Amino acid sequence: MIDLSEVETFDVPEPPPWLLEQWREHDAWFDAQGNPEPQDSAEEEEDAGQWEPGDLGWEPCELDDSEIVAWMHRLGTALLPGTEGALIDLIRGLEDLKSCAAAVQARAAVAFDATRRQAEADRGIAVSRRGIGVGAEVALARRESPFRGGRLLGLAKNLVNELPCTLAALESGALSEWRATLIASETACLSIEDRGIVDRWFIAYLQDHPSIGDTRLEAEIRRKVTETDQTAVVRRRSKAAGGRRVTTRPLPDDMVEVTAVLKLQEGVALYATLLKAAEAAIAQGDTRGKGVIMADLLVERITARPAEAPCDIELMVVISDEALFSETEEPAHVDGYGPVPAAWVRDLIAEADDAEQRIMVRRLFRHPDRTTRMETHRRQMSPAMRKLIRIRDHRCRMPWCNARIRHTDHVIDHSNGGDTSVPNGQGLCAACNYTKQAEGWTCTPSQDPDLGHIVTITTPTGHQYRSTQPSGPGD
């Protein structure tokens, strides 16, 4: 671990004068909260050139959530400055404040993880089981997906334990959380000692190049990491090849994005081949755009059929009778994509009749005394139940998690008396299902006449979060 007292290459910028003046004007509010008396006016004039926390009427003390709420109220109700320069200073000051808040969040996340692990150690929990679910709790508190929560917790540990200079820059407002993430990611392959070397070098570099862009910053960090330990970089690249994958992501206007993560030489070769073929087609008079031609060529070369030719597909479409057989504006839902216009589904079915495409059309009944009351005495849910739950929930039911459903889970575990039924079922990704099994986590299902299926999640700290089923056709 790097000793933060040795870090002397970074100067914390002084807050702008207008911000100091606003804070001083509102010392009365801090007095009302029981903080120490502010300095008198003579002392303020004497120390006008030096800013200390005590100048603003308080001394460092333990943070409380009520203080955060009060600060938010103060910011939300404050009057904006009347001059252009002051408005720009305000925008910059708020940006610095966001970075400082991210640094405090990082320290708080590390402290929470350490406190939880110590408490579990005191209860005699095995080392391998300590800290399970901490990342998910951080994610829920930050309104992020559990996957991102785990990455944020990892970033926090890196900053606090191994990148103190980067943390200091973040806390001062000279660095954004995203840039801190780039630094942590690029230096992850280094040892703690080498990471400390790059950490100190970066702060000096940032002082000389304060306006560097993200792409150049990432390149400079990568260059320095390579200079520090080439073997570690080569080792990381050899492992990265095992992460090759192809993923899809729905886009607006009935489009989808297909992303492939490939080896450098393979990815460059693939793109170059498509680009060369597109340029040749344009040279022969093709009027389509270069990007459109490349996309069509990719489809043609993978499916071995023209891009405009209809292909056999199987879509799980949830649509009401009214939308299917009349000209209503009510949207339908395509499983794995999301809401689509009902007219698009009607046109697709009409085209499918001509092209002999296979399309599965289903309707989901939301009312609890209909299809959703399907239940069984078996421990495992039937295929029909799993399909119905996946259609109802669309994506993982953990709040702020948008991952695909991998597990059809009992909300109340079967071992705890939970029945095998659709109301006691929920769709979760694998990570969220494993998190739910951690000590201290409980889930309770309920049914609301307006909101439909609800799952109330209680974390080990007693905080509760509510997950409601997505709206669907017929709602």
UniProtKB/TrEMBL annotation:
This is DUF222 domain-containing protein. It comes from Ammonicoccus fulvus. SMART domains: HNHc. The lineage of its organism: Bacteria, Bacillati, Actinomycetota, Actinomycetes, Propionibacteriales. Residues 384-434 form the HNH nuclease domain. Residues 28-56 are annotated as: Disordered. Residues 40-49 have a biased composition (Acidic residues).
